[in-house]
Amino acid sequence: MSRRTYQRAPEAVRRDDLITATLDCVAEFGIAGATVRQIAARAGVTGGLIRHYFDGKDQMMQAAYRQLMSEMCAPSHAIAREEGKAPDCLRRFILANLSPPIADARTISLWAAFIGHIPINPEFASIHREHYLAFLTSLELLIVRCFEEFGRTIDPTHSRRLAVAINGLIDGMWLEGSLIDDMFDTDEIAGMALRSVEHMLEFAPGTLTAIADS
Amino acid sequence: MSRRTYQRAPEAVRRDDLITATLDCVAEFGIAGATVRQIAARAGVTGGLIRHYFDGKDQMMQAAYRQLMSEMCAPSHAIAREEGKAPDCLRRFILANLSPPIADARTISLWAAFIGHIPINPEFASIHREHYLAFLTSLELLIVRCFEEFGRTIDPTHSRRLAVAINGLIDGMWLEGSLIDDMFDTDEIAGMALRSVEHMLEFAPGTLTAIADS
DNA sequence: ATTTTTATTATACGCTTGTGCAATGGGCGG
DNA sequence: CCGCCCATTGCACAAGCGTATAATAAAAAT
Predict the structure, then answer these.
(1) Which chain A positions have a beta carbon within 8 Å of B116's beta carbon?
(2) For residue A28, which of B126, B118, B128, B120 has the smallest C-alpha distance?
(3) Does B94 share its domain with B35?
(4) Residue B98 is part of which domain span?
(5) Whose CB has fewer CB within 10 Å in chain A, the N or C terminal residue?
(6) Whether B149 and B120 share a structural domain
(7) pLDDT given for residue B211 in this prediction
(8) Whole-number mean pLDDT of chain B?
(9) Is the CB of residue B132 less than 8 Å from the CB of residue A176?
(10) Best residue in B161, B183, B197 for a mutation probing chain A (most A CBs within 10 Å)
(11) Which residue is closest, via its CA, to the C1' of D7?
C-alpha cells in the first residue's frame, strides 16, 4: 500500500518543530486539547515520532515550558544588560513586560496553561523557580544601577525587597491587562506601572514617565 | 448480590459535597487528575451521581471555580465594607490577601489549576471577570475613603487607576509568595506590599506600616 | 403497612489517550 | 549506483475517560 512521503530533518530542527507545535496547540486548545496527535499533526509528522525525540509527552511539555519561559524572559535580560542610562533601561524593562509580545493573548494563554502544573509537578516548579530568580536578579541589577546613578545608597536587603515588590507589580499588572484584554490598553497599563515604580523607588516625578504622562 | 448501603442527602448538601470534593481533587492532583471517579470517591459516592446534580463534568468544574473565587474574595469584600478608619481597613485588606488562607499552598494550587481555562473557555472567563471587577471596586472604595479621611481630593479616573495598580501589586506578590513559598515568609511579603502601597498613594511613612516596620 | 418516588448504585459503552513496535523508505557513505 | 542506517510511518493495544441507563433501595407519602 502507499505510504505517505516524508522528509528527514536534523535532530535540532525536528525538536524545535515539535516544541513550537506543542506551544501552538497549548495556546489554542489548552493543555487538555494539546494531545500527541494534535501536536504531531501541527508539526506535520505522525504521533509516533514524538517518542523518538522525547522520553514521553511529559518531557516534551517540560521542554516547551522551558522554551516559553526563556522567550518571555529574554527581552528583559537583554535590556537589563544594555549600556545606557539606568532609569531609561528600567523604563524600557517595564514597558517590554507590559506590551506585546509579552503582554498578548497567546503568551498569557500559554503561561496560564502551564502554571497549573507548578504546584503538582516538581520539574515544572523547578523551571519556574529558575526563571523567576533570574528575572528578579536582572530587575534588582537595574534598580541598583539607578540608585548608583542618582548617588543614593541602597543595601542588598533593601534592593532585593524592592525588586520583589516591583516584580510583583509587573507580574500582576501583566496578568490583569492580558487576561482581560478588552478593558485596558497597553499604554494605560504601562503608564500606571511606570508611575507606581517611580513612587516605590522615590524617584522624582517624570524620571520614568517623562513622555508618557497623561 | 450485595449492593453498597448508602444514605440520601438533601440536594444542597450533596451539591456542596461534590463541589468540595472537586476542589480537593483539583488542589491535590491538578485538573488532569481530577477525574469523575476520583471526585466521586472523595465525596463518598459513585461516579454516576455527578450527572444527577450537574449537566456534566464541565458544569461541575465551573461551579467549583465559582465557589473558589467567592471564598477567595469574601474576606476582602467584608473588610472593605467594615466601619472604622479607612487606612486601617486598607492595611487589613492587603494583609488578608497576603496571608493564609488566601496565600497558601492549597489556594494557589486551585487558582493556578483553573486559570488555564480562562483563555480557552468563555464561561470561565466570565466568572473571572465578574470577581475581578468586584474586587477592584472594593479596593477602589477603600482608596477613596482613605483620601477623604485625609482631606485629599481624587477624581474617579485617578482612583480607578490606583486601584488597578495596587490590585496588580497585591496579585503579583500573592502569586510570587505563594508559588515559591519557601523563599519568603508572610510577614516580609506583607510588609513590602504595605510599604509599596504607602508610596503609591503618597501616604506619610507609617500610615499603613506603623507596627510591622523593619 | 403499603405504595410511590427518586436518589443512588452498578455496569456497560464508545471514544480518546499515550505508548510500543514492526515495517518502510529517505538520504548518506562507499 | 548500491547498500546500509535510522528517522519516520502506520497500526495495534491497554488503560482511562465522561456518559448513558437499568436496577435498586432509602425515605417520603398515603
Answers:
(1) 30-31, 112-116
(2) B120
(3) no
(4) 64-200
(5) N
(6) yes
(7) 62
(8) 96
(9) yes
(10) B161
(11) A8
Is B32:A32 a contact under the CB 8 Å cutoff?
yes
Residues recorded for chain B: 214
* DSSP 8-state symbol, A208: T
CA nearest to A191, candidates A162, A166, A214: A214
* Contact status, residue B175 vs residue B189, Cβ threshold 8 Å: no
Answer for the pair A46, A40: CB distance below 8 angstroms, yes or no: yes
State the CATH number of the domain containing residue A2.
1.10.10.60
Contact between A153 and A147 (Cβ < 8 Å): yes
Same domain, A195 and A92: yes
CA distances from B87 to A133, B44, B93, B210 (A): 33, 46, 10, 11
Sign of CA dihedral A101, A105, A106, A110: positive
Q: Report H helices in chain B.
A: 11-33, 36-43, 50-53, 57-81, 86-97, 105-115, 122-149, 156-179, 186-200
Please tell me whether residues A83 and A184 are part of one structural domain.
yes
Which pLDDT value is given to residue A1?
60
User: CA–C1' span, A4 to D9, in Å?
Assistant: 7
What pTM did the predictor assign?
Answer: 0.95
In a domain, B210, yes or no: no
The three cell numbers of residue A148 are 548608583
The nt closest to B43 (CA vs C1′) is C8
CATH of the domain at B126: 1.10.357.10
* A30: chain B residues, CB-CB within 8 Å: 116-117, 119-121
Residue A111: all three cell numbers together: 503561561
Q: What is the pLDDT of residues A166-190, one digit of tens each?
A: 999 999 999 999 999 899 999 999 9
Asked if residue B91 belongs to a domain, the reply is yes
Determine the residue type at B78. Answer: A
Domain total in chain A: 2
> Which amino acid is residue A35, in one-letter code?
T
**A76 falls within a domain:** yes
Q: Is the ipTM of this complex over 0.90?
A: yes
Which nucleotides of strand C come closer than 7 angstroms to any CB of the protein? 7-12, 16-22, 24-27
Residues A99 and A79 in one domain: yes
